[in-house]
Amino acid sequence: MAKKMLDLRDIKWGNWRHGATSGVFPKERVGDKYYKLSAYNPDFGIYGIQSMSEVIASRVGKIIGIDCVEYRLVPALVRLNNDEFETVVCESEDYNLRDEGIFVFEDIYTSRIRAKGEISPFDFAKEIGIDADVYKMFVLDYLINNIDRHGRNIEILVDERGNMRLAPLFDFGLSLFSSKADQDLIDKLDSDHTLSNSFVGGSNLKGNLSLIDTQISLRELNIRHREAIFNGLDEYISQERIEYIWRCLLRRFEVLRGVENIIWD
Length: 265
Hints:
Number of domains: 2
CATH class of the largest domain: Mainly Alpha
Mean pLDDT: 92
Strand content: 15-25%
Distance between the termini: 42 Å
Helix content: 25-40%
Low-confidence stretches: 17-23
Strand order of the largest sheet: 1-6-7-3-2
């Protein structure tokens, strides 16, 4: 039985260009839902596996106890530049259920500098009391090798009393080696020396783990989680890639086991 296709041909996709790759990742909000495509180029059409990386990363975050936007894949019919495509889109819902104020971290950080003077993004996170959540962000970004945690894909929620908290983490498209072809997935690619676009902390994902100076509690990742992480994705990514990602997740989790101040349940 054929899967039902969601008709998204009326969406006027916005183009969001990232510095880490030359691709354009169309995304748009419709009502209380957000839709994202992996990548689009007028010459090649829709391509890439960034949407699958979003789903895998959000599942991993949920398993280990980190607040993430929940992504899922939905078959859809879309139109870009008057061309129609049958594809799969990444769907998520609005996480701001309490109607709190939403602010881009980079924006409020810039405003703080203008008002009070220079401070690092990391020290600013501690100043506003979101350091524990930032530490969890460091853990997840290391685990999934997220190379693009720039200052605009970190958001802050503010309640009516002015209390701030980190919004659920989102935008994992450039994690889990999504920009690499299957034939490039070699062991040395999974390196702890890879540099990332990290607005908070440093450019080395493993190095950021050393900044965790208070205890945080998370849940362990183990073999029984494999099926939940990759469920339904084998028709979109190869078994070779699934094996590679799983191997990298397990290796990086073993590194995380040795990080001081992380308590694993």
